[in-house]
Amino acid sequence: MSFAKASVRDAQVEGRRVLVRVDFNVPLANGEVTDDSRIRAALPTIELLRDRGAKLILVSHLGRPEGPDPELSMQPVAARLGAVLGADVRIAPGVAGPEVEAVVEELAPGDVLMLENSRFETGETSNDPALAAALARLPDLYVNDAFGAAHRAHATTEGVAHLLPAYAGLLLEREVEELERVREDPRQPLRLVLGGAKVKDKIGVIRRFLDVADRIMIGGAMAFGFLKRQGHAVGNSLVDDDSVEAAGGILDRAAESRCELLLPVDLVLGREFSAETERMELDGIDVPEGWMGLDIGERTAAAYAESIATAGTVFWNGPMGPFQKTVPAVAIDSA
C-alpha cells in the first residue's frame, strides 16, 4: 500500500534547516524520562536527516502547561534523546523569536536542536498565525513525524505546514500505512483496544470500526463515560457530560451492530491522580465517593488479554490506565 503524501525520503535536505514536529510527550519523574518509547520511535526520521546532512530543529509539546513551567521543560527529553543518539542535543531558550533564531544560525549539518515545550506558547493550541509565522522563520522546510498529535490543528502541526515545503516523517508514513491496512484489509477477527481520556476524542474511530471489528475493548478514563451512561456510580473519576452523551450514542449503535463492545468488570481506584495515592482494587465497577478510577482491574485485563491473543488483527489506541504513573503495589482492604 503506497503512501500518497510527500515523504521526507524525497526531500532535499543537505545543509538545510529542517523543523521536525515530533511527539515527545513522554512521562517524567523526578526530572527524568521514565519511558523513552516515543523518542525511539522518531529515531529513523532523525537519523535519516542527520545522515543526509540536515540541520535539525525538533519541536514537541510536553504535558498541558498554561505558559512556561520549569517542571515541563524539554531539557530532560533533550538529554535522553542525546543519550540514545550518542550525540549532543542542545535545548533552545524558547520556542521561537530572535534568541532562538540566533541559536539556529549556529547549527552545522548533523546538529540537533530541541525547541522548548511548544505549549509554553499560548498560541500553540489556538493555532495562532503569528506563532506559526515565527516558527516558519527558523527552517527551510518542515517535517511532521508526530502521528499522535497530527490530528490537532495547532501551530506546530497545521499552521506552520502551510508556510513551508512540508513532508511526512517515516513514523507518520508507517502509521498511516498501517492504519490504512487495518481499515481496508484487516486479517480477521479484528479487535480494537481503546483507552485514553475522553469518549468524544475517539468517537470517530469507534463509529468507523463498529461496522468492521468483531470486538471493541474499552478502558482508560473514557470507560467512565460509558459506565456513567449505564447508570453506574463513577465517584471522582475523570468524566465529562460530552463524553457521557457520546457514549450513549455509541452504546445504541453498538446494540444494532455485530460488534461486541466490552467494558471493564473491575477497576483499580485511587484517592487522586498521583503515584503516591492510596489505592484500592474494586471487584466491580461502581466507584465509591472519594475515589476515582485509575485503571482496569485484573479480571478485565485477563479478559482483554485473552481476546487479544485470539485476534487476527489488533488495533490499539490509548492507554488502559495512567501508565506514566508508578502506582504503589500494595492495595488496601476494599471493605
Question: How does this structure look, described?
Answer:
With 335 residues, the protein is an alpha/beta fold. It has two domains: 8-173, Phosphoglycerate kinase, N-terminal domain (Rossmann fold), CATH 3.40.50; 186-317, Phosphoglycerate kinase, N-terminal domain (Rossmann fold, 3-Layer(aba) Sandwich). 32% of the residues lie in helices and 17% in strands. A six-stranded parallel β-sheet has the order 5-6-4-1-7-8. A four-stranded parallel β-sheet has the order 11-10-9-15, sandwiched between helices. Strands 13-12-14 form a three-stranded antiparallel β-sheet. Helix 6 links the parallel strand 7 (141-144) and strand 8. Helix 9 crosses helix 10. The protein starts with 16 loop residues before the first strand and ends in an 18-residue tail after the last strand.
Q: What labels would you give this structure?
A:
335 residues, alpha/beta, Rossmann fold, 6-stranded parallel β-sheet, 4-stranded parallel β-sheet, globular
